[in-house]
Design a protein that fits this description.
Largest sheet: 7 strands, mixed
Order of helices and strands: EHEHEHEHEHHEHHEH
Shape: globular
Number of helices: 9
Number of domains: 1
Number of strands: 7
CATH class: Alpha Beta
Radius of gyration: 17 Å
Distance between the termini: 34 Å
Strand order of the largest sheet: 3-2-1-4-6-5-7
Oligomer: single chain
Length: about 250
Amino acid sequence: MSEPSPVPPEANRERLSAVILARDEEGTIGPLVESVRPHVDEVIVMDGHSSDRTAEIARAAGARVERDPGRGKGSAVRASLPLVSGEIVVFLDADGSHDPADIPRLVAPVRERSADLVVGSRFAGGSDELAVNIGQLVRTIGNISMNIAINKRFGVELTDTLNGFRAIRRDVVRSLPLRENRHTMEQEMVIQTIRLGYRVENVPAHEYVRRFGRSHINIWKEWPIFVWCLFRNLIQPRRRRPPSDAA
């Protein structure tokens, strides 16, 4: 990973909160928190009832640690929203697959108000896990298929809608009707952001191979859940934002 650069000191700069979703990631959480801190104003680790030293190591590295409801990644994201103080929230996974040095690039369109949600694109930035094995190949094909469905439904041109590395304006994410408890929250967030009239953009972000432990996603069991989530959200009618929400 590249060297982090410090958060700019401008007094009028919008605050950044980083939320790291973690469960049993003691091998990566410490260096990750330390790498994220120079880019943001606060780091919150949502601990998914870890059985190892994830929470202890995260605190020692300088993060605020909160225990999530234990129902999955989506519920952890929702539980984090009342806790963040920044006007912009950056979400990262704890497995080392996201490069904190990409945070300024991810946040820039949100700060410039050209986008409300920015998702790191592994298809533009490259990935070490796009087709390492059959499971990853299935994930890649599924991601592309879901991107196509979302693009066709809403007339957008997104290349990656499932990457957990993303930045979103706090008031926007709090306004979304999010209900998914699992990893399906990532596509739900994209769809609901577009559906409510907000802007979604991709920026290149490289995905690194997991540095510790195993993935918590069993693609063979969960792909029908992703498909159902996609269908259920796509059939909802678009809704115009109230005038007060306009950028």
